[in-house]
Structure formats: C-alpha cells, structure tokens
Amino acid sequence: MSFEEFKPLNEKSLVEYIKATPALSSKIGADKYDDLVIKEVGDGNLNFVFIVVGSSGSLVIKQALPYIRCIGESWPMTKERAYFEATTLRKHGALSPDHVPEVYHFDRTMALIGMRYLEPPHTILRKGLVAGIEYPNLADHMADYMAKTLFFTSLLYHDTTEHRRAVTEFCGNVELCRLTEQVVFSDPYRVSTFNRWTSPYLDDDAKAVREDSALKLEIAELKSMFCERAQALIHGDLHTGSVMVTQDSTQVIDPEFSFYGPMGFDIGAYLGNLILAFFAQDGHTTHGNDRKVSTIFRILICMFIALWDQHKDGPGEAYLADIYNNDEVLKLVQENYMRNLLHDSLGFGAAKMIRRIVGVAHVEDFESIEEDKRRADCERSALEFGKMLLKERRKFKCIGEVVSAIQQQS
Amino acid sequence: MSFEEFKPLNEKSLVEYIKATPALSSKIGADKYDDLVIKEVGDGNLNFVFIVVGSSGSLVIKQALPYIRCIGESWPMTKERAYFEATTLRKHGALSPDHVPEVYHFDRTMALIGMRYLEPPHTILRKGLVAGIEYPNLADHMADYMAKTLFFTSLLYHDTTEHRRAVTEFCGNVELCRLTEQVVFSDPYRVSTFNRWTSPYLDDDAKAVREDSALKLEIAELKSMFCERAQALIHGDLHTGSVMVTQDSTQVIDPEFSFYGPMGFDIGAYLGNLILAFFAQDGHTTHGNDRKVSTIFRILICMFIALWDQHKDGPGEAYLADIYNNDEVLKLVQENYMRNLLHDSLGFGAAKMIRRIVGVAHVEDFESIEEDKRRADCERSALEFGKMLLKERRKFKCIGEVVSAIQQQS
C-alpha cells in the first residue's frame, strides 16, 4: 500500500501505515500487531483520531481531512492545518515539555500526526469541571504552559529577524484564523444561519447582542487585534476542551488554530471557559471556579515576570537591557505590559463566553443542564457578565476585581 | 556586457544597461544616446541614483547597494530592499497614481529600478519648507496619497486571506525594519556611538531622554506596535525628504522601508517632520507650518472616512456590513478608529521628532541654522514638545488641540 498521496485512513490501512513507519512501529513493538486495539475517538469537529494500544506500547494517530468533519464536505478546510498543529506541538513541547504530548511522527502529505497517547485516567478538563473534580496542580501547570509558550515566542525573547520569519510561516494558517474570525468575532453579532441559542428563552438576549453598538465597537477592536497583532505563537483554541488532565498531569492538545497572534487570546480563552464553568454551576461556588480564575492568572503573571527578569539580557528586542537598565524602569514597563495583557485577556475571554452562548459552538458545561429554562438562566447570567467584561475590561486593575465582579453577577 | 549578476553600475555601464532594456530604452528613444546627460544625484544615504536625460525623454535609475552607502561596506544592508521599494511604488502608484512616480522597469538581480524622472522644478519638500515656499495643493495631495494607500491595504478593504498573503511578502523586508527599530526606537534612549546632538548645549537634554522612565515606557509600546501590528502597507519613511513637490505636483518617493505596519507610523512621520519645520523657524509662524499639521490631518480624516463609507459593502473584513449595519454604529466605530489613529500618529510623530534631535540622522530644517546656540534652542523646544507629545498623546481629542499646544510651546 502506498501513502504517497493523501488518503483518509481507516482502522485497517492505519495498521499498514504504522508498520511502514519506523517512528510509529517502534512505539508499538515489532510482531505485536495481532493484539492491537484501535479505537476512533474523534469527538472533535475537525479530524479523525485513532487510539492505538498494543501490549508493549501505544500511540495516537490524528489525521486532518480537507473539510470540517462534523459538517462534511460542504465546509472545506485545508488539511494543511495538521502541519501547523504538528509544528506548534513541537515548538510548544520544547518550551513546556511536561504539558504538551510528544510528537513521534508527522506526515504532511497525509496530514497525519503520530503522538503520545494520553492514557487513562486522562480526561478532557471540561468534563472534569462539569463533574466537579478538583485538579490541585492544574493552575501551576497551565501557568507554566502559557507563561513559557507565550514569553519565549514573543519579542521579549525573539529578536525581530526570528520573529518575522516565524510570523511569516504561520501566516499560512489563515484558513483556520478565518474560522475563528467568523465564529468568535462576527457571527454572534449578526444574523447567521450557524448561530443557535436556548430558544425561546434567550431570543431577546441574542437580539440584544446583535443590536448593541457599544459591544460591536469593542468586538471590532479585538477582531482587528486578532488579525493584525503578531505578539506570540498562540495555541489559538485554548478552551477547557483542549486540555487533558489527571490529578498529576496536565496536557494541552489540538493547537491546529495556532498562529502569531495576541497573547490575550489564549489566556482569555482559558479564563473565559473557567468563568463559563462557574456560571454553569448555577451560581453556587462549591467548585471554586471563580477562584480558579484568579489563581491561574496570578501564577501566570508571576512566572511570566520571572522569565522576563531571567532573560532581560537575552535575545529579545522589545525591551533592550541598555534602555530598560534599572529596577524602576523595568518594573514600570513590566506592570504596564501585564496590565495591558490583563485587559486583552478579559476582552478575548468575554468574546469567547459570548460566542459559546449565542454562536455556533456551545459548551458541555451548559449543554449538560437538561432543563431549558434553567440552562437559559445560567447562560443569561454568563452572557450579561461577558457583555459587561467586554465593554468595561479596561476598568479592571487586577484579576481580583474580576472575581469580585463574577461573584456579584451570579 | 552581461547583467546576469549583480554589479554596481557607473555612468558608462548604465548606458549599456539602458540600451539592453527595452522598457528603458523606449523612454529615451533610439539613436539618441550621444547627447544623453547622466548625473549621479544620490544624496540619500543608501543608494545610487542616476538621472538620465536625452533629447526625447528622461528617466531615473536607482540602484541599491548591499550596504549603507554613506557609511560604507562596514554596515551591510540587503539590496533586496529594492524589491520592496519597487513593489510598493507599483502598489501605491496603482492606488494614488497622481502622487507616486511611475516605475518603468525593475531588475531584482541588479537591485535596480527604472522610473520616472521628476523633472525641474520638482524639489525635495524639506528644502522647500526650509526656504519658506508655500505649496497650495500639498495637503490635498498628501492626504490623497495617505488615505488611499493606507485604506486600501488595510483590513478595511482587504479580506484576511489577501491581508495575510501580503503581510507574509513584506515580512521579508525585516532588515530595513530593523534599521528603523534601532535608530527611531532604541538608540535615542541609550548610549550609542551613532547618536549625536548639538553639543554641549544639548548634552543635558540628551541625557534626560536616556533617563526618562515615562518616556521609555511609551517608546516601548510604540516599538512593539511597529514590530507586531500589520495594519496596512506603509511607506515606512514618510518624512518631508521623501516627498518631491512643485506648485502643482506632489510625488512620494523612496518607499524602501515599506512593510505592513501601523498606519500611524506614516502619518506621524509626516506630521512630526512638519512640526520640526515649525520649530526650526525659531517659533515664528510666518510660514504656517503649525497650521499645515491640522490642515493635512483634517483632510486625511475626511478622505479616509469617505473611502470607508464608499466601500463599507466591499471586501474588507474588519467591519462587516451586516454587523455595522446602521449609521449610528458605523459613526461610532469610525470615530473610535480615527481617535486611535490620531493617538498612534502623535506617538510615532513624537518619536520621529526626538530621534532627529538626539539620534543618528538629523534634518536640514535644523542643520541649516548655522549658529550652534540658536540651533540648540530651536531643537530643545522641539525635543520638549516631542517628549510631551509622546507621553500625553492620548489626552488630545483632535488635531486642533495639538496645534494649540505647538503654539503654546514655542
């Protein structure tokens, strides 16, 4: 069997592919193919995902198809996204190796990634949050991932030659960016056949979003920032469904939307989804998802500043050591940078909240609430908070004030 | 003679080159080579520029050398800049054809552009301003050039696919961007062997710039915006020495620093240099360079908004017609966009003023003041105004307030 041109794999051809690929077969072990267990688990919207478990090893094969899987061939989507996913998994994996699964193999023609299988009890973080499970190391781990991947791919560490080279490469992932532009920054604010919400309860709320000029002003600024500002190599889809966890392990997956964009888009995606989890609990604070927001952000800021201090004489060209040459000026610019990052994160986080309530893709946190009326009430609270946050984000001086606002809103 | 690999031309080989190149020889006319008058006039810092005038036609040949001409081979600089210059001359020329000289020929190997000779009485705008000459159409022409080149290469007109493609191409001009980063955003704020100023009069002033934490905070934000924000295809060096004028004609030349950057960098360069011209007149307002600042900016804003209104249903994806779907919301976002653009322009303009007084490259406006003490006094006023503008730019609600501030400072 030849794999010299693209073809979607099935459970049978997958085994042939693994046999023909030493980087993969070595993980399974020779002559161990008879008892292989293969399971297709792509519950995402875009790809095939096969779990391959043998007696002496395991792996995951992820293959991108040239369209969005859940919609079908009517919504084409370049399979080149697999190239950007693999490239970012490797880059982010080199920067935060404990929190990104190892890539064993990438085949651009086949749009195929062979990577570590995140064995049980790894579960999707969102499912864990819905179930009310606590992950004691989660904030530390996510802060490590975000601080390192964002810092080291920004001009705080890159010289501008390296930065523009890297930006150039990821400009190629424009189709995936365009999908984000549409579903996050555009569709929720206009009539679109893709939008849905808990009807009829939220009909007026959805309409109010489409008629809110102040909200449209803010979303336009964020959309332009998303499209124009190459601040760091961001994951691009860092919600709680892109993180797999156990009590000890936190693994960030699925960076196919990655590109050089604003850092706040990643931080905001994560914070916004934590806030959604809070509102999905009907205002009860038993699981502490409100406090999770401040904990992760505070640790992230500390780690980020520590990296900055540590590498202030490094290759980064945004703040040159012979200009920012004393503690006073360094502290001044760091505080300013972090305040701007907070505001960007709150804005993008709010945008991500809003789109999950009145846009195309919803979240299990709310979907798992069976009764429509009760779900709508939770969603309305989250939506109102998201709208307030998007409009008022610049008034928040620290993450603590955001948590207070969450508690007041609920 | 072969021109298949790069070689610097001289007045003799230049004629051979023209003869061998129909796009150029057709401008001169056949058999007219005996009475050709060739003059090398590259008074810039980077290139050779030959004016070629025959009895039936004329042209200019501009050739980039692989180093900065005025410093020599010790400061290498890619000759690929000629590619970006030619590409932008053609792109901007298509958008504002009355204000960009026609390109007849481009040879990437030879880093050579053949283009329209801007015949006498065309003169460098800066020289005209120093001489106190009035150009009645200048503001209209420059507003036309800036409004059209910036609007049509931004996401107000581009879809994001076209935008990222174009951004990718111009990421290649990173070496020229790095030169700007150094001389505009870095060197004036640190000890650098390239810096110079009117010494000893401005010794303390230069030191004060290097010790001003608030100033360093602002210049860092602008540097990051310059490096990260791909808002439009900007000229990249739009000072009054990059414009040639007569009473009727205004021609923008030398876009070798062009790339996708913040619009405010172009507008600010032009405004900042007009403000420098004002301060070089020792505070006398006879030439009205203060009022020139408000006139050009107001016309620019009007033209820009008119283009936006005209193309609001066009391909641009920043403000989609079905979201910004009534006059109220459209006016709201336009005013916000223009206020941000004013603030960006004032910041970059201030940075350009400062660097012309304490950085490597100075301006004839001041240099033509022979007496050191008097020159230093003018420069100090301009420097103080630049510093104030950089720190306080967000407080200005309109360009009129800026002109009032100029008049108060002088």
UniProtKB/TrEMBL annotation, chains A, B:
The keyword Transferase applies. It comes from the Eukaryota. InterPro entries: Aminoglycoside_PTrfase, Kinase-like_dom_sf, Methylthioribose_kinase. Keywords: ATP-binding, Kinase, Nucleotide-binding, Transferase. The keyword Transferase applies. Its EC number is 2.7.1.100. One of its GO terms (molecular function) is ATP binding. Residues 38-271 form the Aminoglycoside phosphotransferase domain. It holds the Pfam family APH. Belongs to the methylthioribose kinase family. Homodimer. This is S-methyl-5-thioribose kinase. The lineage of its organism: Eukaryota, Viridiplantae, Streptophyta, Embryophyta, Tracheophyta.
